[in-house]
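[retry 2/3] Transcriptional regulator: previous attempt timed out, resubmitting with same input.
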Amino acid sequence: MAGSKISENVKRFIAAYIDSVELLEVLLLLRSHANEWSAESVSQEIRSSPTSVTKRLTDLCDRGLLSMKDSRPPLYFYKTRTDELDGAVRELAEAYRERPTRVIELIFSKQTDTLRDFSDAFKFRKDD
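[retry 2/3] Transcriptional regulator: success.
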């Protein structure tokens, strides 16, 4: 993928699963370290708030990208629901390593589109 564009598969994956850079960082951290993580340890590693990281971890579990060990505190680890998701995460990790700015732009453009759609809902048309 070096020097190439971001694949359509990665673009679709970002559109469907990744809604923040923080979520991406949490996912890739757990993917790259095959051990169990508490929300606190993840927050220290990526230098973010434990509350925000806990939400991201929960979101990733709900989306089938991580699994959780029910303990006190809960422990999270990388295990996707399907092999297809694992392949998509692998491809995303490669794209982020080679073209991080472009991947971040895709995440933010998704947020911009959502905001634009929201604001468009409040536009008045002549016939209203």
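[retry 2/3] Transcriptional regulator: The longest helix spans residues 100-120.
[retry 2/3] clearing retry counter.
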